[in-house]
Amino acid sequence: MSKLYFFTVILLLFFSFEIYSQKKTLQAKSTSENITIDGKMNERIWESAAIASDFIMFEPDNGKPISTDKKTEVKVLYDNDAIYISALLYDNEPDKIQREVTNRDVFGVSDHFSVYINGFNDGQQDFRFFVSAAGVQMDCLATEDYEDFTWDAIWDSEVTITEFGWAVEMKIPYAALRFSKADKQIWGLNFMREIKRDVQKYTWNRIDTKIGAIIPQAGILEGIESIQTPTRLFLIPYTSAYHQESDIGSDRTFKAGLDLKYGINDSFTLDAILVPDFGQTKFDNAILNLLPFEQRFEENRPFFTEGTDLFSKGSLFYSRRIGGAPSTEPTITEQEEITNYPSTVNLINAIKISGRTEKGLGIGFLNAVTEKTKATIMNTTNGQVRKEVIEPLTNYNMFVLDQRFNQNSSITFVNANTTRNGEFRDANVSALLFDLNTKANTYNLYGDFKYNTINTIQDYDGFKTEIGFEKTSGKYRYGFSGKYVSENYDVNDLGINFYSNYHNAYAHGSYRIVNPTKVFNTFRINEYINFEVDNTSKKLQTGAFGTEIKARTLDNDTVELLLEFSPFETFDFYEPREYGKYVFVPEKIITIFNFTSNDNNPFTIIVQPAFTKYNEKGRNSYGFYLGPKYRFNDKFSLAYAAEYTKMNNDRGWVDFDNSGVVFAERNREILQNDLIGKYSLNNKMTINLTARYYWSYSKNHDFFTLQNSGYLTPNTSYTLNKDRNFNSWNFDLSYSWWFAPGSEISILYRSYGLERASVVEKDLSKNIKNIFNSDLTNVFSISIRYFIDYNSVKNKF
Q1: Taking the C-alpha atoms of 188, 312, 507 and 595 in order, what is their torsion angle to the nearest 10 degrees?
Q2: Is 134 exposed, middle or buried (0-12, 13-18, 19+ CB in 10 A)?
Q3: Residues sharing a CB contact under 8 Å with residue 479, sequence separation 6 or more, in sequence order
Q4: Are 372 and 421 in contact (CB under 8 A)?
């Protein structure tokens, strides 16, 4: 290599780094005026504030300056209570500004303006605040891996549509942010503008999409000095009333309680719930689950979704364990039967403390206590009734230490502990994680080590470890990783994990365009290989090659394709439901295609066919998803989704008999219909409809006995009926009014029911009739939550 060539390469690398390193700086201006949030910016102080302008396109044509007819000007003021942001968003066609009215945290078909704030300027986590052209607020906590929109802050905003475009005015209290105690604050800052009709996003400080990390590419906010932040103490009392009717009669319930949020200091917050009430949370989508694993449900309870990013580190926290199903079943004799087995355990109370110091140390602590729960058992001979504890008084505890450094790297320690009263099972899991990135965010090295200890009748422990390396920048990217999971790895007391006792190797390589071409606005193709081997038998449990393609056309329609080829004989170590057993799985090909039309159009549609072919006579599955949506106007929309799956000659476990593990060859069908409607009276008041009908059956036609080799032989002696027919119905009609910041009145009518049978009914109309003739439960409820800011009360008195 010549000296001239070497010098040129070094110069180019240095120049590239310098370009990336350049950050815009904005000076915030102090104010003593009373700023009225009305979207008009009439206060004189706004005239002398510094302007952030010259926005750059983020996507699709990364790096292109914003046109003069779409120029954007942003200013920042501050006082001892909050920062104030004004934005003038010019548009040469203001009548084309999209402004669908949606629920809070739902983006919809609207133009948006947002501010990204990093109070520690450490390149690790943003507090993001969005407002649509319809005045709807959205907010989230964001890291490079995840945007948590379940986090809700209390802040003010107002929007006005003008002759030149639209204007935004925002007030973000310091209580909604986290920052250091320094006298002179230096924050990471960026603004983003989305022009929905053009499917374009612009940022104030350029974000280079060839670089994998977004947050470190923020600009700088200076000028905030000598602020005296107020006490962060918020009380949220609530009251709820329920009226329920079912086949066993009617019932009325009244509840009252209190949520508390207290800012221990500028970095840490205490959240607590007393007398919790989750009666109006979203319903769970029950299914006919024939898998060897439990069904995983989404978390819908606000306390366990808001601000829990620290607790998600290491994937050891599955919050549905807290207040979920009991951990044991009662022991009964042949003369006894269980007459009442509670499906959930009541939560007594819960607290969490979380935050981050100015030196980048994040600390999270969560504790929850659930009550003792008993099942009722009756002796069928003499009628005597007894109760047995199926879940004792239980304490759940999460503790997280997450140290960030060099703006984009971290080392994390996590501990999850479950302690049950008495002789019941206890568990403890600890994990050490690392996530290291080069300064320019071009390469990433990550890994973990997790260790669990289980104390039960027979104590055991296990571990899991993983290491991976990735190139995270440029058009061409790649990565590879390795994983080892021991036989007794078990995190299922406070986490959720289905697979253990294997080692894994994974590699991928991808290509993407970073600027539009003559065909695509965006395009990415990823190739991967994945192998998993059982530790004990050394048999292959996964062996796959895959191709993923995702592209957005110039018309802003999205097209996706997945092709996965498994050319090897593999074995399933979980379906037999017996330790040490495994069952043969033939070679297969999976194909999934997805088309999603441009959501700017009033009518949009999602079409997704899927097909899987096994190397076994007559064994295949196919499915089809159809999701049309029509937006009648900016306030009213209806969406329908139909999902159908057919499995021919599927094979799975059904029972145990004298010959051993019994499998069945079966035909299965699954049909799910969802209807979602929304009518927004304004940006604070909405009526929502969610209806779901689910039907599935499993019809067995041949039985087999599992051999020690993993293969199946015919079983002609098994005659029990293991067919399944399952219907589920859910209907929610709700009215929500955010009558004050953080305060809501919610009215809900809910109807739901389940119908299970061992006789398969293939007539859809009869299944629908059966579910509505079953014992439906109907609930009408009213809930009021009121947000009280200690400072507002103090000032009044």
Answers
A1: -80
A2: buried
A3: 444, 468, 469, 470, 471, 507, 508, 509
A4: yes
The Cα 271–Cα 280 span in angstroms is 20
* Interatomic CA distance for residues 188 and 193, integer angstroms: 17
Q: 60 preceded by cis ω (within 30°)?
A: yes
Q: Residues 66-87: what's their mean pLDDT?
A: 95
Structure tokens at 134: 């319809």
Sort residue 660 into left (φ over 0), alpha (ψ -120 to 50) or beta: left
What is the CB-side half-sphere exposure of residue 636 using CA atoms within 13 A? 2
CA gap 777, 768 in Å, rounded: 16
Phi, psi of 164 (to 5 degrees): -95, -10
To 10 degrees, the CA torsion angle through 318, 323, 327, 329? -150
Alpha carbon distance 619, 94 (integer Å):
57
pLDDT of residue 11: 38
Identify whether the C-beta of residue 207 lies closer than 8 Å to the C-beta of residue 215.
no
Specify which residues 160 forms β-bridges with.
167
Q: Which amino acid is at 64?
A: K
Q: Coil, strand or helix: which one is 614?
A: strand
**588 Cβ contact list (under 8 Å, min separation 6):** 566, 612, 613, 614, 615
Nearest CA-CA partner of 365 in 289, 464, 264: 264
Whole-angstrom distance, CA of residue 113 vs CA of residue 135 = 10
CA end-to-end span of the chain = 78
Signed CA dihedral, 659, 661, 666, 669: sign only: positive
Tokens of 575: 């379906």
Contact 112, 193 (CB under 8 A): yes
Q: What residue spans of 285-443 are helical by DSSP H?
A: 302-305
The Cα–Cα gap between 148 and 151 comes to 6
Half-sphere exposure of 662 (CA within 13 A, CB side): 20
DSSP line for 556-569: --EEEEEEEEE-S-
Query: What are the E-state strand segments in 489-557?
Result: 502-512, 520-534, 540-553
Q: What is the DSSP letter of 343?
A: S
Encoded tokens for 84:
């104030």
Taking only the tens place, the pLDDT of each residue in 320-370 is 999 998 999 998 888 899 999 998 899 999 999 998 887 889 899 999 999
Mean pLDDT of the chain: 92
| Structure tokens belonging to residue 514 | 């970073």
Q: What is the length of the chain?
A: 797
Contact 302, 746 (CB under 8 A): no
The tokens describing 321, both together, are 């364990």
Q: How far apart are CA 261 and CA 307, in angstroms?
A: 12
DSSP 3-state of 717: coil
The answer to whether 353 and 367 have CB atoms below 8 angstroms apart is: no
Residues 169 and 411: their CA atoms lie apart, in Å, by 38
Q: What is the pLDDT of residues 103-127, one digit of tens each?
A: 999 999 999 999 999 998 988 889 9
Of the pLDDT bands very low, low, confident and very high (cuts 50, 70, 90), residue 19 is: very low
Q: What is the DSSP letter of 424?
A: S
Q: Which of 429, 467, 432 is nearest to 451 (CA)?
A: 429
Over residues 239-264, the pLDDT tens digits come to 999 999 988 788 899 988 888 989 88
The confidence band for 16, taking pLDDT boundaries of 50, 70 and 90, is very low
Residues 372-415 pLDDT 10s: 999 999 998 888 999 999 999 999 999 999 998 887 899 999 99
For residue 300, which amino acid is it? N
Percent residues over pLDDT 70 in the chain: 97
pLDDT digits (tens, 9 = 90+) for 165-182: 999 999 999 988 888 888
Residue whose pair of structure tokens reads 């209190």 in the numeric block = 258
